[in-house]
């Protein structure tokens, strides 16, 4: 059994199973997630502090369309099966894209389901996240990568009911520079480009019924997590950004889930440097129709 401080993971995604009283955590689990991809592992806990695992949930076969940069798996139960949305770097054009995998069990094994990425082939896209609207229409929210466009974008695309392909053109929801809290990212790889980062969008409804989106960027080159609210209550927005970041202590790529006690909990990784990234869990404080803040947490000791 491992303590949270001993689990190296980026982009933690928690799937609670009330019938078992257990939390299943997925994420980017390669020791060097910037290099060759080996697959995804999961961990299981009953207290969010101590974890069983790792359990291998996806291992690619030789004919898989990617062998590099296996990132940000998110797992959803939809129409009787488990679906994983995950980012991979394509072999054919070197660009990132989000593909869909599927399994009959929560711990897999997950197998390729979509025909490669469902994001646009010519885009560098990452961090796809599933959202099903009130009409039952599935959408995928994802990032159009800042390295390709400078000012990173968050977009949404309608998916087929069976989740295996896109059925619309992407809709631009916002650009990173529109948020008042984010600042330009100074990248030595792109010194002549004004860079604003979007990373890890995740959409959820608060207790009030309001629709929110978490997404990560940078403040003075330090990883941070922001939050926006849909003024229409629909995925297409418009999205109004909070004035200040929700978390700015070198942590981000967040998602929220309900604990078995009913608390709204934020999962992020911090710090944002390999191999020191660890999962932390912070209670989200709500005030009527507003997400106010998260309870502070002591720094993760690596």
From TrEMBL:
InterPro entries: GH43_arabinanases, Glyco_hydro_43, Glyco_hydro_beta-prop_sf. The keyword Hydrolase applies. SUPFAM superfamilies: Arabinanase/levansucrase/invertase. GO terms for molecular function: hydrolase activity. The keyword Iron does not apply. Pathway: Glycan metabolism; L-arabinan degradation. It comes from the Bacteria. Gene3D superfamilies: Glycosyl hydrolase domain, family 43 (2.115.10.20). Keywords: Glycosidase, Hydrolase. PANTHER family: ARABINAN ENDO-1,5-ALPHA-L-ARABINOSIDASE, ARABINAN ENDO-1,5-ALPHA-L-ARABINOSIDASE A-RELATED. Belongs to the glycosyl hydrolase 43 family. This is Glycosyl hydrolase family 43. It comes from Paenibacillus cisolokensis.
